[in-house]
Amino acid sequence: MKLPPVIEAPIEEPRPTGADVEAVLPGEAAVARAARRSLDGHARGLSRIWPFLGPSFVAAVAYIDPGNFATNIAGGAKFGYLLLWVILSANLIAMVVQTQSAKLGIATGKNLAELCRETFSRRTSIGLWLQAEVVAMATDIAEVVGAALGLNLLLGIPLFPAGVIAGAGAFGILALQQMGFRRLEAAITALVGVVVASFVFELIQAKPDGGEVAKHLFVPGFAGTESILLATGIIGATVMPHVIYLHSALTQRRIVGRDADEKRRILRFEKIDVVVAMSLAGVINLSMMIVAAALFHEGGLAGIDSIDGAYDGLKSLVSVNAATVFGIALLASGFASSSVGTMAGQVVMQGFIRRRIPIFLRRAITLAPALVVLGLGLDPTDALVGSQVVLSFGIPFALVPLLIIAAKRQVMGELVNPRWVTGVAGVLAAMIIGLNVFLLQQVFFG
Questions:
Q1: Which residue, 73, 80, 194, 266, has fewest beta-carbon neighbours within 10 Å?
Q2: What percent of the chain is helix, strand and coil (3-state, nearest 5)?
Q3: Mean pLDDT, residues 265-285
């Protein structure tokens, strides 16, 4: 299969950033030195953990993208607090999957796309690459449309020019990658912090029923077929295929273990990173549904099922300030998740076909479909839903190879998954894939 002409020569060797190598950039060198002190037992407390924090916060952005806004708000508005347990369950599944991805990079020094190329046939690898590129573009549609909608709601900018501005903002965030991974992680974490602060404000304004929140957080329940379908959507859309690839790339050379024991210790630190970051994403998703339940469901606006509807609902039920804060959270989410989607696209191209294009050219290419959607005047919420359907198609092609490779001792070495982990992860993977098949069936035939 002939490769597209835009693809350059084989990728150069990446800049060393491991704990056993002095990194090129000062910030990276500081992280490497701090990690070495931790691994050698010379650091205590938070200073022992901080060099390993970051990759999961980048990956967690995919779990609070604009698509999650729409789903969680619809669930809270229609069914109140009933489906909070679904978000909690989905978040726990996400922790398992992202830990597996991070472990792959730590154990092998390679990312999932590279290992797929080495494990499977060339034809299979090319097929996986092509579908991963389609997934990257679908991801960008959701993120850019969400950010554009945020600009539209806040400033009244028409959607198409708002999409151009959103794309330019993502370019600015990606430029930080040239200054070292730590600055990029800090910028994305700061945007996540904006989303967190925004929903803390919304929670205070909403004044939810604490007893109902606690009850439905741990007690499963449904209210008819529609609630089952929505719960299926929340869980089925939990795993984002592009961040399965990306997380393994974020850990593969960031801090390099010199032997199996050191890799195990790095993995323990990375598990802390996953739990903290994914818990934060889970709290944000829960907050979205709780706010919608307290305000819209109990306020007689159960029909709200769109982001702009939620914005208008906040304005009418609470205040203009509450609606503005919601719009800011949506904008921050769109900027951060769009940058992450572009990074993931770069990883899959480098890994599957050993080629690369400049990351800014990739950003422009993946931005194009989103601008087409906005230029045609399609409904933003419909565009978000459509992008999630495409993502559903891509999940098996990332999740199944991840579990196959993680079970191979010749690849993973001492960090190979024990049989019980493979079994549990396999059951979760089968459930996620099954739910997405059901969702697709409902979309096309239901």
A1: 194
A2: 80, 0, 20
A3: 95
